[in-house]
Amino acid sequence: MLVDTHCHLDAAEFDVDRDSVARAALDAGVGRIVIPAVERANFGAVASLCRDYSGCAAAYGIHPMYVDRAREEDLDVLRQTLHREQALAVGEIGLDRYVEPRDDARQEFWFAAQLAIASERELPVLLHVRRAIDPVLKHLRRSRVPGGIAHAFNGSRQQADEFIELGFKLGFGGAMTFPGSSRIRELAANLPLDAIVLETDAPDIPPAWLVGQRNSPDQLPRIAEVLAELRGMTPAEIASATTANAHAVLPGLARLH
């Protein structure tokens, strides 16, 4: 069994065929799919999906690219949702230093506030860290969250080691499948295996064989095969290890049937 630790199955791109996408993932051996919310407006959709689809589990948070339309009362709604629903984690939260225009101070406020909520609830976090790894790490050093996942990791080995020391796993997916992604592939090949989890970020970050097309969670086995090749292991060994890693960092997965 494989665990897709980051998949936006609620996205509009899946509205026309979500049932078949979820079924194809299960048929491919993807037994668990983690669906992170990105704003208050989709908390309900994520919760509904995770009730309707076997093997799906939710995280709730406000993504840094959506904080411009967030309101402070959304933090209370987040707390209520985490209390009411079976949440694996707080996420997707973090910082983004890529998209323009942006309000860095506003992102920092929302990130810090949600880290505090995760600490209160003793929940791990699913982190968005695009071009923002050092400021994200700065916040994590000040917080007491019980680890989590740095999604779509693309930092240095030193930064990777710091995340690991703080109790985090690092998410690898479609970007790793491109031969030109030398830094990501080197990390995937050489990091401690117990620090790595797999993800698709579907419908985004398609692997090399789907350039320009919609990504989907049934691609995870081929992504796992790439990791196996990079590490000189069998796909079965990679599946076993990364699934164990996902369960270790997201203990709520054990509640799923």
Write up this protein.
By secondary structure, the chain is of the alpha/beta class. It has a single domain (2-255), classed as Alpha-Beta Barrel (TIM Barrel). It is 41% helix and 15% strand. The chain has 9 helices and 8 strands. It has helices spanning 18-27, 43-52, 73-84, 104-121, 133-142, 157-165, 182-190, 220-231, 235-249, and strands at 2-4, 30-36, 56-60, 87-94, 125-128, 148-151, 168-172, 196-198. An 8-stranded parallel sheet has the order 1-2-3-4-5-6-7-8. Helix 7 (182-190) links the parallel strand 7 and strand 8. Helix 8 packs across helix 9. The longest helix has 18 residues, at 104-121. The protein is globular and about 45 Å long. The two termini are 13 Å apart.
Order of helices and strands: EHEHEHEHEHEHEHEHH
Name the CATH homologous superfamily.
Metal-dependent hydrolases
- Average pLDDT taken over every residue: 97
SSE class: alpha/beta
- Tally of domains: 1
Measured between the Cα atoms of the first and last residue, the distance is: 13 Å
CATH class: Alpha Beta
CATH topology: TIM Barrel
Q: How many beta strands in the DSSP annotation?
A: 8
- Strand line-up of the largest beta sheet: 1-2-3-4-5-6-7-8
So, CATH architecture? Alpha-Beta Barrel
Helix content: 40-55%
Strand content: 15-25%
The main sheet comes to: 8 strands, parallel
